[in-house]
Amino acid sequence: ETGVTQSPTHLIKTRGQQVTLRCSSQSGHNTVSWYQQALGQGPQFIFQYYREEENGRGNFPPRFSGLQFPNYSSELNVNALELDDSALYLCASSLGVDNEQFFGPGTRLTVL
Amino acid sequence: DQQVKQNSPSLSVQEGRISILNCDYTNSMFDYFLWYKKYPAEGPTFLISISSIKDKNEDGRFTVFLNKSAKHLSLHIVPSQPGDSAVYFCAATLNSGNTPLVFGKGTRLSVIA
Predict the structure, then answer these.
(1) How far apart are CA A26 and CA B68, in angstroms?
(2) Counting one residue from A and one from B, how many pairs have CB atoms under 8 Å apart?
(3) No. of H helices and E strands in chain B?
(4) Taking CB atoms and an 8 Å limit, are B100 and A97 in contact across chains?
(5) Nearest CA in chain A to B9
């Protein structure tokens, strides 16, 4: 059974650019949640996708958007990058919206 | 506005002793609480949880205590082992579900051999 994987591991962007982060959910999981973990902080909920539909969103601006595909993998897109977007982005998958979440290793984004 | 607070950024404990990690919350609507452990370069992994209808839950060396009136929970690890060295996050949810998780800032535990 393959766990949650994320790509890329690290990336560096400049302010104003756009970025796409990818997540492959654990086999059989139909729900993906994304979290942002800034340095020295705990992970903060961005949004959740269940069966390709957004199912809840945290306090993040619209320039944070996402997609979930029929195979339940997911993308997080961030437009007009700001310096404060520098963080570790974590993806978590679960079987259903209220079941235990399994986290991937994260993508570390640095915005210069 | 931090709804889940872990006021100790770090904790050092001798191997074999008890580790006690504390967590406070402000939102009285939270009814399910979880602890996650995170090693460097890995995602958080679920450790133990407790529903608001209980005041204690035990799983091997790990016990979580909940004091609803004080809005406080703690994680006890007995005995502590060097492999327990990690960052521990306290998290809370509404409606007895697992999402969305509201995390504290974490406590870095170092278990010294």
Answers:
(1) 34
(2) 62
(3) 0, 11
(4) no
(5) A40
